[in-house]
Amino acid sequence: MRGLTLRHTQAAESRWRTSLARVGGFLAGWPQGKVATLIGKPERADYEDEIEQTDWGPALRLRPPLSIGGATMGWARPARRLGTARAEW
User: Fold this and answer.
1) Which end of the chain is more exposed for a tag (fewer CB within 10 A), N or C?
2) Pick from 24, 26, 2, 28: which is nearest to 13 by CA?
3) Sequence ranges of the domains in the chain
4) 3-state secondary structure at position 26
5) Rounded to whole angstroms, how far apart are CA atoms 5 and 27?
6) 3-class DSSP state for residue 6?
7) Phi-psi map region of 68: left, alpha, beta (phi>0 left; psi -120 to 50 alpha)
8) Is 21 within 8 Å of 38 (Cβ atoms)?
9) 66-79 pLDDT per residue, tens
10) Pairwise CA distance, residues 48 & 45, whole Å
11) Predicted TM-score (pTM) of this structure
12) Which alpha helices (DSSP H) does 11-66 contain, by range?
């Protein structure tokens, strides 16, 4: 996040090296804020508009729970069974 902030505010480049395990440990240790409680079943407005074809049949994906600076989460591929896609970076 610091690197993205520098790029946005000062047009400065930065290079960072970290590990997924270290980031996961950091996030797991971060104090949790207020947790929402789900009341009732999700409504139609809670789902994306497009039906996607998954390994389990047609499905609706839940909308992302948040956006950061107007950038929402997205997926380039439909849901698949674990282990069916090769690793790509």
Assistant:
1) C
2) 2
3) 2-30+39-72
4) helix
5) 19
6) helix
7) beta
8) no
9) 777 878 788 888 88
10) 8
11) 0.46
12) 20-29
